[in-house]
Amino acid sequence: MRTQVGIIGAGPAGLLLSHLLHLQGIDSVVLESRSREQIESTIRAGVLEQGTVDLLTETGVGERMKAEGALHHGFELAFEGKRRRLDLTGLTGKSITVYAQHEVIKDLVAARIAAQGALHFEVSDVSLHDVESSKPGIRYRHQGEARELHCDFIIGCDGAQGVSRNAIPEALRRDYQRVYPFAWFGILVEAPPTSDELIYARHERGFALVSTRSHDVQRMYFQCDPEDSVDHWSDDRIWAEMHARVDSDEGHKVIEGKIFRKNIIGMRSFVSTTMQHGRLFLAGDAAHIVPPTGAKGLNLAVSDVRVLSEALRGFYKNDRIDLLDRYSETALKRIWRAEHFSYWMTRMMHRLDDASPFEQQLQVAELEYVTTSRSAAMSMAENYVGTAPV
Ligand code: FAD
Ligand code: DHB
């Protein structure tokens, strides 16, 4: 089989890239190790920056998101028993949309299938070949048969556990990493929303986040030990912890409901450079991870493929190689900004077991600052809604 661009992984990065290339008349094949049902039901991100929403809308895959997603103009910071609002739109003119990642996946899969795009699920034994030549290939197994996809470019969109990154020789790679000694316990709850906007809470017992999915399903998280197990947490224990961390002295209370999903999510910061080698390019979690606090991961995957689709268009339509040559350098500017923001917000909001009482007071001082100083609030808001596309 032959195509122009071979894409490994049908997450937001791989599917959106395939969609953007199709709109520019460039052929691609997407190879995914999981089933369609699995990718359409994995619960992950929820916050889309305005730039992400605009891109999905402009490229014709935003209809359901517009109808079912919720537009948010701010969020709340809860600390020291109080709640303070960050007015995202007042400060930046921009907003965010809460719309689950697996809904974005469903919309992109539907668009690729409607356009008769090649999307192969449940492939295995994926390996990359000849990435340094102008005729690279991907070998894999599908429906019991060994296959090979010949292409001009290979794009590794296979997430944090994928195989693509390892096709860049170790001698040319530099990895940067920070693993955090805490995790998030995530729950899905049948309940009405606790608040009109997201609540990020810092408490001496640990971080908590109240998010939403719809008028009757809510998404919440609280900081836990990465070695903990969901079996140790009864519903009563979870609600006691959420109330302790989020309820305010001003009378706001988390609204309880039936918990129907529980999972524990590890947290790390990671950047792998370079993001390209020969005819191989990496995008999204395959090259970088952020802790979920700043809600940046999916949005970074989108901004990578925006840059990459422009560079591939330059190659196919205008014989330009310079945009491709500069891909890693261009994408990394935004990636490092988001890495810093996610790290900063994580450090400000979480219980850090090695923090001295002095450092704990600094966390509170910083929260006081971002909720009282317009310039500090602006800095947090502009990062949260997403810095300008590169
Ligand atoms: P992935 O979504 O990981 O997709 C990679 C795909 O490749 C997968 O489908 C995988 O099955 C497939 N694959 C892997 N290996 C192979 C192989 N060898 N061959 C073929 N296919 C392969 N981000 C935000 O922006 N906002 C948020 O609010 C947010 N909240 C989050 C909350 C949680 C709890 C978590 C866990 C993450 C959150 N994120 C958030 C991060 C976001 O979910 C990820 O950054 C995003 O999924 C990255 O997309 P991707 O396409 O790069 O990778
Ligand atoms: C959600 C996830 C996040 O990481 C975040 O910062 C905000 C919201 C969510 O799943 O809704």
From TrEMBL:
Pfam families: FAD_binding_3
Domain of life: Bacteria
Keyword Heme: no
FAD-binding domain: residues covered: 2-341
EC number: 1.14.13.2
GO MF: 4-hydroxybenzoate 3-monooxygenase activity; FAD binding
SUPFAM superfamilies in the cross-refs: FAD-linked reductases, C-terminal domain (SSF54373), FAD/NAD(P)-binding domain (SSF51905)
Keywords attached to this entry: FAD, Flavoprotein, Monooxygenase, Oxidoreductase
PANTHER family, sorted: P-HYDROXYBENZOATE HYDROXYLASE, TRK SYSTEM POTASSIUM UPTAKE PROTEIN
Protein name in the entry: 4-hydroxybenzoate 3-monooxygenase
Organism phylogeny: Bacteria, Pseudomonadati, Pseudomonadota, Betaproteobacteria, Burkholderiales
